[in-house]
Amino acid sequence: MASYLPTMEKVQHAVLGPRGGDKVADLQKETKEMTDKARLTTDYGVKQTSADDWLRIVNNDKTGPMLLEDPFARERIHRFDHERIPERVVHARGSGAFGKFKLFESAEDVTFAPILTDTSRETPIFIRFSTVLGSRGSADTVRDVRGFAIKFYTQEGNWDIVGNDIPVFFIQDAIKFPDTAHNNFWDFQFNHTEATHMFMHPRSYRMMQGFGVNTFTLINAKGERHFVKFIFTPELGVHSLVWDEALKLAGQDPDFHRKDLWEAIENGVFPKWKFGIQVIPEADEHKFDFDILDATKIWPEDLIPTRYIGEFELNRNPDEFFPQTEQVAFCTSHIVPGIGFSDDPLLQGRNFSYFDTQLSRLGINWQELPINRPVCPVMNFNRDGAMRHTITKGTVNYWPNRFEKVKPATHEEGGYVEYAEKVAGIKARARSSKFKEHFSQAQLFWNSMSQIEKNHIINALGFELDHCEDPVVYERMVTRLADIDLGLAQTVAEMVGGEAPKEASRPNHGRKAPGLSQTEFPGSKPTIKSRRIAILIADGYDQVAYSAAYAAISAGLAIPLVIGTKRSKIVAAGGAGSTTPHHHLEGFRSTMVDAIFIPGGIDSIRALSKNGRALHWIREAFGHLKAIGATGEAVDLVNKAIGLPAVSVSESAEVHDSYGVVTMRETKPGSLSETVDIIKGGAGFMEKFFHNIARHRCWARELDGLHSQV
Ligand code: HDE
């Protein structure tokens, strides 16, 4: 894939070489390079003279029957016939990358796990992001939860956090999971009121949070236990696509998120997350009005603030998809000393499921696969099984044995010791009463949303329920919404049909919690870093405006994508310069970029004005609430394409910003290329344009009803 940006970070990357620590070095043993000296061979090592023709009978330049004898041809066919493994039963579609985890504050008050106490360490990681329901070949941008699974290759063994991009799950007990992998989603939602708190499409894997969701425990050196939830917060903020954009991208570029992650890492703009923990002392377990072991509940930030103690970044793309991203296998049961489980009934079920599923996907020796094997020593008496790789010298496969060479580890040597929890009770199929309260946090979530987010939730419900044919399903779902908020239920009822509820099934408690709304998301600084910005041109474009914008975009570590009326050379006005666009207007679409800039130039603008696709680009970007910048003659083009009286444009050399449409009629040398500091928010053209890009979307267009012309 093209890499557009020769940034300093990229140069640095090239100098430092691939990062990822011990794990990358460990994988080198299996990694081959394709070189000029290499020759084609069979899998058993014999060099081949041809890979094109099956061995056959030839007579007087006529070819006759093929010979089954040909071992080379048969090897190729056999491989082809058997190259698939079962895809993951859920989370089949995904993409991953390598990186590193660094702790900046020791959490020794709550755990003795070295990865969470030793600030001098750098731990290699592999992360796999995924959608949940689609198959391996499905689209990236569907409305679905996203998986966020991390493997920490620690010196004490592999630690996996198999999380999602939202903090809650839709069931409380693992026994119900298999029911949901099939149709009838909304019927399921109605019948499982616990799902009410979990009703989404991120702009990028790099712009979403991650949550361990389940409650784990931490044990410190004094033997004290705390309950813990793990939270990862992206440096770039949390941002979503709008629905129409997500729908179109699913057809135009089903690999959108996969490419986005790849491109950012190739360009040296490494995605980063802060690593946080929410901690509750064991003694406080029952002090809350919700059960802290219930995976359908969050731990509200105002009650239990997140403590950010480390960060991780992704800095290296995989070398080959199948052996790395496809064969990586996670287990919630894989924890390291200092970290433990809780009685969270979902977690307990998961601990059983993940190992089990790897057996059918990869076989019993799955932990020997290069991507899955730990970087610390592994020694035990497990033997045999399909595809066994390790060769352990010796004549015994049991312990204890007469040689007494390999012994269990003591606690001091780092051996895992279970927390000595006293457990007593009656065996029963039951759930605690606090687990039965399903609406309070759904209300908390709804109340914490901004008006924009509320509108999007309403529209999403309106869209999805409109696809349900059976009135029982959508009518009952509307009554369920009345458990959350009467206004919500009434608005959705009006959209999808059915009787609007007259009163709320329960009063809305009116409480809010911080950190739930994306638009009020804490901690993320405005930046254009890694954003794709299209520059639309045709022959005769204004070279000064074009190159100033290109330079400013690159300096901001964003990605300038030149989109032309053709993909061959385009010449600037007066022959002042030329460029070969990255893409042409038909090949690429506005949905694939975050913003567009159009430089002036009489001939260029004349050509773009006559081009229906160019006009559609501008309209569509406007409808998807993206920043649009135009200078010189392009101001009129933008005005014509948008054609809304409410949106005004520059009439002079002044910079004009109306609903995120930033225009300036006259460009003098230097007027565009001032130092761009979007955080300080200057008054220059680029500053205003970049400020709008950094805000992700111009929500005011939507609030004022200007956005629907897509
Ligand atoms: Fe999973 N889940 N899950 N899940 N899950 C799998 O394991 C399962 C749950 C999650 O990139 C499977 O290796 C059960 C919660 C992610 O390889 C399987 C239950 C959360 C991934 C499985 C849950 C997740 C999986 C399928 C509840 C968020 C992809 C393939 C009872 C906290 C990991 C595999 C990757 C994958 C079972 C619930 C996240 C079948 C039984 C809650 C990110 O074992």
From TrEMBL:
Provide a GO biological process annotation: hydrogen peroxide catabolic process
CDD domains found in the cross-reference section: GATase1_catalase
Q: Which UniProt keywords apply?
A: Heme, Hydrogen peroxide, Iron, Metal-binding, Oxidoreductase, Peroxidase
Residues that bind heme, according to the entry? Y354
**Which family is this sequence assigned to?**
Belongs to the catalase family.
Keyword Secreted in the entry? The reply is no
Sorted alphabetically, which Pfam families does this protein's record hold? Catalase, Catalase-rel, DJ-1_PfpI
Q: Which cofactor does it need?
A: heme
Q: What is this protein called?
A: Catalase
Q: Does the keyword Iron apply?
A: yes
Q: What's the stated role of this polypeptide?
A: Occurs in almost all aerobically respiring organisms and serves to protect cells from the toxic effects of hydrogen peroxide. Catalyzes the degradation of hydrogen peroxide (H(2)O(2)) generated by peroxisomal oxidases to water and oxygen, thereby protecting cells from the toxic effects of hydrogen peroxide.
As its record notes, the protein acts as a catalyst of: 2 H2O2 = O2 + 2 H2O
Query: Which residue ranges does the record annotate as region Disordered?
Result: 498-524
